[in-house]
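Residues determine shape. Take a concrete instance:
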Amino acid sequence: MMDRAVLIKEIETLPVTCLSEVIDFVAWIKQRKLSQIPETMLMSEASLAKDWNTPEEDKAWVAL
């Protein structure tokens, strides 16, 4: 949590003219991190489907 406090303090001392750049950068970081998770899941889906899409798996999960 200390890093967040340091970041906030740094932002508070920035000139107002720089704030839009900071906002854009934070949005870019968030988008990059969020987009990495689904891509990994999608890449593994075909490989895992071989094991998951079987009658045995369907029977095992029917009660859930």
User: Anything to note?
Assistant: The mean pLDDT is 86. The helical segments are 2-12, 19-52, 55-61. DSSP finds three helices and no strands in the chain.
